[in-house]
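Database export, one record per block. Field names are fixed; values are copied verbatim from the stored entry.
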Amino acid sequence: VQLVESGGGLVQPGGSLRLSCATSGFTVSRYPMSWYRHTPGKERELVASITSGGGSTNYADSVKGRFTISRDNARNTVYLQMNSLKPEDTAVYYCKRVSRNLALWGQGTLVTVSS
């Protein structure tokens, strides 16, 4: 049972990245999923969430209109499309399986926004 994030890297301000969260060992369609981010010295921030079927999404105010969370349950993958990136988006991004008793985190992928 695991989550594996990928797609992070170095991008210039205004650029785009697409993060992926590959899931395995469980039925992802049963769970809501979220993306969080963490920067040293700051609280971990919930960036975006999506319901199990993908019909509803929520975003932090700081990313609303720029980021899009989506999922492909047939491919067992959750995505985070990030556009118009800003230096303040620099962080390690984590995927999370949302569950009161069975929460699961990935290892994270680093996103650096810098010129």
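Remark 1: The mean pLDDT is 96.
Remark 2: The first strand starts at residue 2 and ends at 6.
End of record.
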